[in-house]
Write a sequence for this structure.
């Protein structure tokens, strides 16, 4: 055993070294230098993910860890871009590089928006940058996030001092078939404020993104994301959120296409009466692999958490869900809910699930469930008997399947944008 | 309107013959009732006519105004004007009742080469139909049949019938699970649709539904065949004496 462990350790070290060699040294980035250095130490200590790691058994990490990314063709489409009709402040990155030309002016009432790449010696984000990521490394290692903190080339730092009038929209364009982007965002909401962040686009051939969100008492953070339609792109994303008393965190992600996507969400409820909802819907076809890995820690009383994940899979696509609810001692009256379901449109696709509950308080209500199934034949016949053609009936039932996740989006217009995108995906599949 | 000749049907997965030569003609403007004991093949007839999978037609034919029904997909039969009110209406979580109705109506219109109905016109149209069936706005918003009571489900079937305005309506045990008041409401809904251009085939176990929906012709089905045909008095005879006498006559 000891020999095997040493071999594994050596393999991870070699892998990590190869990646670090390709990245080059951590450049001195002014105020973030200390955080970057500490993150690099964490990364070297942990090593990059390996297929033998407990939380990488269902998802092969090679595409995310290898020194250079696999090429990913750019998806051409005439379809309108998502969120186009939404009044928003646009921040555009092209292959991971900020585009001032395509972005709006970053001055916005109630907000202070800076770029990570803008050099200075002191900054409000110092002390936050890399902090939630570092906290989130225990008890489960997330080496790709540590790599991100050490090597991120850019990102936005948003300080919300008064509730935002319109969403901040982060747009990730992909134009280069071998781009390798690393972005790191920090969002800090002061007490009682609110902000909506939208994200869309494939970003790069390979994308590593971290968003750290610090939500003070009574503040509300809403997040709606569509991960882009490029078939061959690969992405590892992490959300690290810390919630204060009576605060709210709600995140929804739509993933249609992409060869490999790993979305991790690590949430810590640290103040009483806080609410955290994480939801996702994915539409996968062919060599599509999509992994949602969620870890929610209840460390305060009377908090509510919901995890709602729906995966539509066909043609050999793979969906993964690893979701955990940890209720710490003293986190009484916790209300934890977790559901993960897949709709398998044929017999070739698979759904791999690992739900976990770990509870150290005695007065809590936690539930989890997971199902896999095909389109309901009775429902299909019922619709057909009313004149709805088979294809349209299947689409209607598919949209109905993901509805519980989409309903987690509070803003009806944003929910409709997501549904339009899903309809587009279904239509293209029939094309 | 609906013409069924020597229809023979077996289960697809089992070597079990359910219909053994059914002959039946429903004329426009008429209400035909089919009664019969459990397992006689009544529901199978309704499913085969509406195009449900799982059955194999081994002989005979069924046409709607001369068009071969058995050769069509279920949705094509609906667009051609056939409607089945289900014995057990299906729950469809996540699909709103209004969306369902509008999708169905517009799909049928499209299939017939007609213009789709606008959202505003449709809303007005449905509200009016719903009102007479005592279906409130809340029920129209909810997912199709989810959490509906037995009576609400059957009323919802009749609402669909009123909205889609089919030429040939098959009602499969629409009275099952209904209390007296609900049966009255549903029957009134059906009677309001009676029209000289429309045919009805009402499948039921009991005479009591036929007190409300008065049939022109009553058929008794047993062991996969129509064994006796008569006027409304035949239903009363069944109510009084059961099926035994009739089955014996035909044994």
């Amino acid at each position: 055993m000891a020999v095997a462990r040493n071999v594994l350790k050596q393999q991870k070290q070699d892998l990590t070294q190869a990646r670090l060699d390709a990245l080059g040294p951590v450049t001195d980035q002014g105020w973030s230098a200390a955080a970057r250095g500490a993150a690099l130490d964490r990364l070297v200590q942990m090593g990059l993910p390996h297929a033998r790691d407990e939380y990488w058994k269902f998802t092969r990490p090679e595409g995310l860890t290898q020194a250079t990314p696999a090429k990913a063709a750019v998806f051409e489409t005439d379809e309108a871009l998502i969120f186009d009709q939404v009044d928003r402040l646009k921040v555009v990155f092209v292959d991971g590089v900020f585009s001032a030309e395509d972005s709006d002016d970053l001055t916005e009432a109630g907000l202070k928006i800076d770029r990570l790449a803008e050099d200075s010696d002191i900054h409000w984000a110092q002390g936050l940058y890399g902090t939630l990521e570092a906290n989130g490394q225990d008890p489960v290692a997330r080496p790709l996030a540590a790599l991100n903190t050490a090597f991120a080339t850019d990102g936005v730092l948003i300080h919300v001092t008064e509730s935002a009038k319109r969403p901040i929209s982060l747009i990730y364009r992909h134009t280069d078939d071998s781009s390798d982007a690393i972005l790191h965002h920090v969002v800090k909401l002061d007490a009682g404020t609110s902000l909506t962040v939208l994200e869309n686009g494939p970003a790069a051939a390979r994308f590593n993104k971290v968003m750290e969100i610090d939500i003070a008492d009574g503040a509300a953070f809403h997040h709606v994301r569509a991960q882009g339609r490029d078939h061959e792109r690969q992405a590892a994303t992490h959300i690290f959120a810390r919630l204060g008393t009576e605060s709210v965190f709600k995140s929804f992600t739509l993933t249609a296409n992409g060869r490999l996507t790993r979305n991790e969400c690590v949430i810590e409820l640290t103040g009483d009466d806080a609410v955290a909802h994480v939801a996702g819907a994915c539409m996968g076809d062919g060599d599509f692999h999509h992994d949602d890995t969620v870890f929610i820690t209840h460390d305060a009383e009377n908090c509510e958490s919901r995890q709602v994940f729906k995966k539509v899979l066909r043609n050999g696509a793979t969906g993964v869900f690893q979701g955990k609810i940890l209720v710490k001692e003293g986190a009484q009256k916790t209300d934890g809910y977790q559901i993960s379901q897949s709709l398998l449109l044929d017999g070739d696709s698979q759904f791999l699930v690992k739900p976990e509950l770990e509870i150290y308080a005695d007065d809590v209500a936690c539930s989890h469930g997971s199902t896999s199934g095909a389109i309901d034949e009775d429902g299909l016949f019922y619709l057909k008997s009313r004149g709805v053609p088979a294809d349209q009936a299947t689409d209607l039932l598919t949209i109905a399947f993901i509805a519980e996740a989409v309903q987690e989006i509070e803003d009806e217009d944003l929910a409709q944008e997501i549904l339009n995108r899903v309809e587009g995906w279904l239509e293209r599949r029939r094309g | 309107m609906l013409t069924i000749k020597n229809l023979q049907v077996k289960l697809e997965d089992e070597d079990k013959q359910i219909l053994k030569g059914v002959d039946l003609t429903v004329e426009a403007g008429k209400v035909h009732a089919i009664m019969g004991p459990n397992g006689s093949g009544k529901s199978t007839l309704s499913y085969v006519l509406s195009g449900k999978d799982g059955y194999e037609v081994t002989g005979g034919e069924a046409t709607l105004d001369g068009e071969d029904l058995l050769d069509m997909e279920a949705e094509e039969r609906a667009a051609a004007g056939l409607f089945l009110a289900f014995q057990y209406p299906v729950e469809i979580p996540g699909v709103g009742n209004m969306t369902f109705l509008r999708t169905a109506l517009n799909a049928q219109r499209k299939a017939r080469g007609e213009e789709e109905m606008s959202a505003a016109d449709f809303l007005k149209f449905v509200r009016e139909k719903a009102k007479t069936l005592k279906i409130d706005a809340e029920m129209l918003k909810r997912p199709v049949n989810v959490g509906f009571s037995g009576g609400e489900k059957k009323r919802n079937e009749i609402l669909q019938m009123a909205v889609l305005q089919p030429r040939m309506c098959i009602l499969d045990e629409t009275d099952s699970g209904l209390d007296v008041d609900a049966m009255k409401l549903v029957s009134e809904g059906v009677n309001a649709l009676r029209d000289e251009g429309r045919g009805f085939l009402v499948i039921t176990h009991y005479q009591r539904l036929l007190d409300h929906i008065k049939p022109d012709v009553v058929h008794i089905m047993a062991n996969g065949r129509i064994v006796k045909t008569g006027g409304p008095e035949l239903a009363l005879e069944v109510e009084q004496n059961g099926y035994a006498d009739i089955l014996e006559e035909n044994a």
User: Anything to note?
Assistant: Chain A touches chain B at residues 376-379, 381-390, 392-393, 396-397, 399-401, 403-404 (CB under 8 Å). The longest helix of chain A spans residues 2-23.
